[in-house]
Design brief:
It is a single chain. The chain is built from 16 helices and seven strands. It is of the alpha/beta class. Helix 2 packs antiparallel against helix 3, helix 6 crosses helix 8 and helix 15 packs across helix 16. It is elongated, with a radius of gyration of 28 Å. It starts with a helix and ends with a helix.
Amino acid sequence: MELSALSLRLRALSVLRGLQKHPLVHAYLDAFDALSQSAEAFAARYGALCAAQFACGDASRAVLDAVHFDVNTLTDTIDAPAPALLDAATHDIEVLNALLALDGAALKAAAAGRHNAPALLTLPDFPAGASLPFRDGAALASFYRAQGYGFFAQSSAFAVQDDGTVAPIVHPDAIRLRDLPGYERQKQQILQNTLAFLDGREANNILLYGDKGTGKSSTVKAVVNEYAGRGLKIIEMSPRHITCFPRLFAETLRSPFRFIVFLDDLSFNREDDNFAALKAFIEGGLAGKPSNLVIYATSNRRHLIRETFADREGDEVRVRDSLETVTSLSDRFGLEITFSVPDKDEYLYIVDQLAAESGLDLPAEQLHLLAERFALRRNGRSPRTARQFISQQMAEQYEK
């Protein structure tokens, strides 16, 4: 495609118009503008284009990601896009593919001829990129239906930041359910609820409570990893960010994905404003929770609020009111799952499974004796203690 035509068509992006703000595409636009200016202006803009190319590493991947993460009129009408919209998307794809097919040598040659400046040919080069994996608007619509779209297509895991924004987690915990032996009944309950949620059926918010080190948080992350391929995402939110729920609801409402908002280690003081806020957001507030979002919370406390004996003093009415306040939040979770400290047999079963997975070769009697001694020296039996024990044994074998 001739450069002047490509420049005009690039400015006429419609469905994918948001890509004009992408640093690489914007750098191309600036370089095209500079073709009609001085050789010095072109050299400056071309240098910025090279910098954008090198920063991307793979221009084709960068443009594909920009298309994937975009929200536009096609994604808004993805179930039944109009023919004219698909035609416009086809135009935009053709333009982007022509842009990717342009290498630095061709752009420099055009500028050197226009400005009669052979020195421009000595500027750095960048290679042409591969075409996008779709050729027309219908194929792009199929891509969006299969892969999803928008901000949350960037990762399977996100975290709410201190300023209330949501950021993707670049390297999320890759733990899987097979890495978590034991607690089969608890895991099955969570899986059943999560599958119902993914299938669009009624699903509950879940409270996982119990002793520390029993794998509550790891189980939630593992379940998300099991079904990330079906569009399940996790958004980790600190209890101090609970007031960000309305903003989070707005950001997830238009997304094609399904979200677990993960509140880890949940605990409140009675005077904590976040306690009342979370109650309202889960159930009873004026703003409804999106149907593509559930809340999974973990806590060491069954009722999530710190109690004292003083809270239970007074007449009967006051005692009842106090107890109702304490239980009012946990009661809003439709499913409560207990993770208790394992007994000796379950603890040793977990040790055996982890030892087999790690390739730790010790006689069972010796392994169990050492595991029990380790638990006595630490904080007692738990899956976390079992994993720490196996790690220590593997380290000692390595040193030998």
